[in-house]
Design brief:
By secondary structure, the chain is of the alpha+beta class. The protein is 46% helix and 22% strand. The chain has one domain (2-92): Glutaredoxin (3-Layer(aba) Sandwich). The chain contains 3 helices and 4 strands, in the order βααβββα. The protein has a 4-stranded mixed sheet with strand order 2-1-3-4. It is elongated and about 45 Å long.
């Protein structure tokens, strides 16, 4: 899984640096280093009044803040990882 956090000027001012830190910490705590590639991305052209734009693989999410990070990580990152694992396990069992 590739997670790209927008670090363009608008998102940077809205907290992208804090979200990078939260992602790094949460990835480490959950031992997901081998499953998630975390990168920065310059402007995603999805500027929002509130929060930061984050791209997970090909899906773009806007308005992510440190306050909504936990729910976002559980609902978007962990759910997607579970699906990837199920697909991979299904292929390796064939």
């Amino acid at each position: 899984m590739i997670v790209q956090i927008c670090v363009g000027s608008s998102c940077y001012l809205k907290g992208s640096e804090k979200l990078v830190e939260l992602f790094q910490k949460t990835i480490q705590e959950n031992k997901l280093d081998n499953e998630i590639i975390l990168t920065g991305r310059f402007c995603s052209n999805k500027c929002n009044r509130l929060g930061v734009t984050i791209t997970i693989d090909d899906d773009i999410f806007t308005g992510i803040t440190p306050e909504t990070f936990d729910a976002f990580f559980k609902e978007k990152v962990m759910v997607a990882l579970e699906k990837e694992r199920a697909i991979y396990n299904g292929m390796s069992n064939s």
